[in-house]
Amino acid sequence: MTTLGAPLGLGSGLFWGTxxxxxxxxxxxxxxxxxxxxxxxxxxxxxxVVLGFSGQRPTVAGMAWGALAxxxxxxxxVLFYRSMAEGLMSIVAPVSACGAVVPVVAxxxxxxxxxxxxxxxxxxxxxxxxxxxASGGRSRAGGGALPLRLLGFSLGAALGFxxxxxxxxxxxxxxxxxxxxxxxxxxxxxxxxxxxxxAVARRPxxxxxxxxxxxxLAGVLDTTANVLFAYxxxxxNLGVVGVLGSLYPVATVLLARFVLAERLSPSQTAGVVLAIxxxxxLGAA
Length: 285
What we know:
single chain, mainly alpha
């Protein structure tokens, strides 16, 4: 793997995890769809400024694949925020991170096999995600660790995030494609899809008011993570950087622990340790 692939992939995971924590926290006070749209608009404005200074030109193929990634990612983000608005962040986030399996399978299908050390890192990191999600705690909605409806939302988010990784990689790798324009395609696709959902569902866009700063920061962090992952996917094995990007629950879980005082079970604590161990192995590969 190119040296920069691992740190950029890990950076994307940390940025996504922090942005998702802020977005999920705000979704407890505002509709998840409104939070998602306003945050992505803020991220799009920052990205537009960067593109204006980059001098790079878009390609139809790159934008199209990016838009498809955005459609998957936008849908996943709404499901994710909705799940975190009702359930424990420290359970919902790791379940959605199971989407890491999708880019690994895609990489294998393309013949991109990681080395022995990287393969061990993938297995350890995914095992960590599974353990972090195996909590006996109760959600805010009551019942077991996660109500069936929220589990369905979280798994739907996992599939959407996994496909997002694959399509961003394609958008960045097509002839003439660039990571920045792949990220722009992502934003165009996700915003179009989310606005269509709001229109069909007749859901008004609720202005965040004094929470706009937090919502905007969540969007900027999310967009930055998209760009970092797009660059990482061009520099390393998709399966490896996909797993690193999918470690965003580590940041979300730790923030939920220290900011919201959500307790971690012993299995979750062990899962965090395994996830960090997997990162170390992947970084050393």
